[in-house]
Amino acid sequence: MIARESEAIRVRVFTSSVIPGVLQTEAYARGLLRAGLPHDSASETEDRVAARLKRRTRRLDRRDPPLYRAVIDQAALLRPVAGPKVMSDQLRLLLSFQDNIHVRIQVLPLTAGEHGMMGGSLNLLDLESGGTLALVESFRTGEAIEAPREIVEYEELFEAAKESSLSVDDSANLFTRYLQEYDNDRLPPLGLAQE
Predict the structure, then answer these.
(1) What residues make up the domain containing 85?
(2) Domain assignment present for 25
(3) Domain-located, residue 140
(4) 178 in a domain, yes or no?
(5) For the chain, which end, N or C, has fewer CB atoms within 10 Å of the first or last residue's CB respectively?
(6) Which range, of 88-92, 113-117, 171-175, averages the lowest pLDDT?
(7) pLDDT digits (tens, 9 = 90+) for 129-161
(8) In a domain, 97, yes or no
(9) CA 62, CA 159: separation in Å to the nearest integer?
(10) Greatest pairwise CA separation for the chain in angstroms
(11) pTM of the predicted structure, to 2 decimals
(12) Three-state SS string across the chain, please?
């Protein structure tokens, strides 16, 4: 599926416990990879980090980038991957996308309760040639989906999560509030995001 990313005119991503890969800072990606693949050598980890950063360049920094829509579960913002400084930098990166007309990031607040994509992540690629591909991931596994009926079901799950999410502006305000906490070497309060 990664090979087809260059064909995408729109990308929709949902993540339940981490920041989406192409929106991760180098240090955040490194922290996740070290935790998730502890037996990798330092060289293997660095190769994976470099590949992740290269995907951002290929996906978001190209001359005619696709529309990129991300819905991030609030829990991903509360978990201090690699510590408060790394999370500060991560939130700054998310905020830097606010002025990018091709990128929209929304937070699904904890107050939304249960939803159809808990515990996993979803990538939907709408291709220039028509059709949509889906990648459904959970811990260390992923499944590419091309069956139209299944794609429609995943699109409905994504749209439901998006509809339950904070607006783009309210999500940015939440990033700013959490950034202030992490900048002061504190964890954000576990209070719920205001809808």
Answers:
(1) 2-183
(2) yes
(3) yes
(4) yes
(5) C
(6) 113-117
(7) 889 999 888 666 678 888 889 999 999 999 999
(8) yes
(9) 26
(10) 48
(11) 0.89
(12) CHHHHHHEEEEEEEECCCCCHHHCCHHHHHHHHHHHCCCCCHHHHHHHHHHHHHHHHHHHCCCCCCEEEEEEEHHHHHCCCCCHHHHHHHHHHHHHHHHCCCEEEEEECHHHCCCCCCCCEEEEEEECCCCEEEEEEECCEEEEECCHHHHHHHHHHHHHHHHCCCCHHHHHHHHHHHHHHHHCCCCCCCCCCCC
CATH number at 76 reads 3.30.870
- Number of other CB atoms surrounding residue 137 within 10 Å: 15
Closest CA to 103 of 128, 76, 80, 72: 72
Whose tokens are 């515990």? That residue is: 119
Structural domains counted in the chain: 1
